[in-house]
Amino acid sequence: MRVAALTLRQFQYEQKVFRRTPAAMFFVAVFPVVLLVIFASLNRGQHLGMLGGLRFTQYYVPAMAAFGLMSACYANVAGRFVYRRETGTLKRLRGTPVPLGVLVGGFLANAVAVGAAVSVINVGVGTAFYGVVLPHRWAAFFVVLVTGAVSFCAMGVAMSCLIPDLDSADPIIWGTFMPLVFISGTFFPIVGSSPLARLASFFPMQHLVKAAFAAFDLRGGGGAGVAWSDLGVVALWGAVGVAVALRRFRWEPART
Predict the structure, then answer these.
(1) Nearest C-alpha neighbor of 111 from the set 19, 254, 15, 181
(2) Residue 255: pLDDT over 70
(3) What are 179-237's pLDDT values in tens digits?
(4) Cβ 140 vs Cβ 225: under 8 Å
(5) Which tens digits make up the pLDDT trace of 150-184?
(6) Which residues pair with 229 in a beta bridge?
(7) Does this model's pTM top 0.90?
């Protein structure tokens, strides 16, 4: 019980830090919604021939929900871990009596909560203003959120271990994240046989987008709406992230 209470307090602390950081609030929580409004408004009433005439927003909203989750649980986690390590915050925290699991658990729980909230907000905006139809597959969407959040948090921690210093954090994080997001069909569907789509299939972004869309896909009628194969790829990348993080994680800046 004591560990659970301490983890909750650490989570509340992380929430306060996040809310008091305007740049993080904007790029993690607001930016995905801004992109949703811009692209959905520009393509209102458009239909996608490659998806059987499905409305653009019915595809785009769950894809942007996946984008918000990835941004919060990968880019945000990696950036904040690097910042705390390079400024000595992690080293100071490591020297306190607080258990390691509490420190890491509170931090990652905040990232998961923020990512899930951003995803739900995107879905809410799409439903309220762009006529997105919810196929009542909330269990499938919940599975996508949990698998994606845990896996991308693990990848975010792993990426932070590979970044050498604070100056290179943003270029490396966003330089690896955004190009893969674009070619993974996040902002518009990409023909699966194209070279870019084949390249993106090796990475987890495309598969999380597909899994999120599967829960909102109206074409199939019934079914659970869970794209198990795509979620399996995401989980596999998460496992790789855990392995890299356990092997390469450090609490203080590298000695020069």
Answers:
(1) 15
(2) no
(3) 999 999 999 888 888 999 999 999 999 999 999 999 888 775 555 678 899 999 999 99
(4) yes
(5) 999 999 999 999 999 999 999 999 999 999 999 99
(6) none
(7) yes
**Are residues 111 and 76 in contact, defined by beta-carbon separation less than 8 angstroms?**
yes
Listed residue (40, 42, 63, 76) closest to 182, CA to CA:
63
Give me the amino acid identity at 90: L
In this structure, how many other beta carbons lie within 10 angstroms of the beta carbon of residue 139? Answer: 12
